[in-house]
């Protein structure tokens, strides 16, 4: 029996990252935002190393390389496009402004990843090897930025925390599609970022300053009050 796709060690980490994000979404739906943020961070770690692992196989066919490019971007749409926006929405980024920002963020992530696929396919055909520079902010950065923002709930008010989530979606989404050169981090930098995220997630698991809105609380008065105040100010 033959199956479509590739199933060797070069893509396993990408599959694991996608599964982690899907599990994280289920946890977010049930109000376990700590677990959701952990799953997002873990997906980011998987994405940080899947390319390095794939390049260790020197005899990959042209089809396998192209499959890896498409697979990585499709999984990134879910892991770092839909998933973070989903978490932010459940945390209270709602109303007209919130919906606009959630849609804007997801759209920017898809545009960026589609453009990356085109550039990477063209580069593989002409140069090969590993690209040393990003164009704009990579979508994986949200696996670092959202946990750091989530951690800020311990030092700011609930209203400020919700405002930060709105700003995060808007600014990061814009940086996804802005064309500016950004040098790819080396292994030491990646390991340092992983350590920072691990510590941050550890702090998040250790404490929660205030009650976060549960997605089942459709008429949560705290959420409604904060959203109304933001909309009045805008």
UniProtKB/TrEMBL annotation:
The chain crosses the membrane at residues 12-29, 74-92, 98-115, 136-154, 160-178, 190-208. Keywords: Membrane, Transmembrane, Transmembrane helix. Signal peptide: none annotated. It comes from Candidatus Avoscillospira avistercoris. One of its GO terms (molecular function) is phosphotransferase activity, for other substituted phosphate groups. This is CDP-alcohol phosphatidyltransferase family protein. GO terms for cellular component: membrane. The keyword Nucleus does not apply.
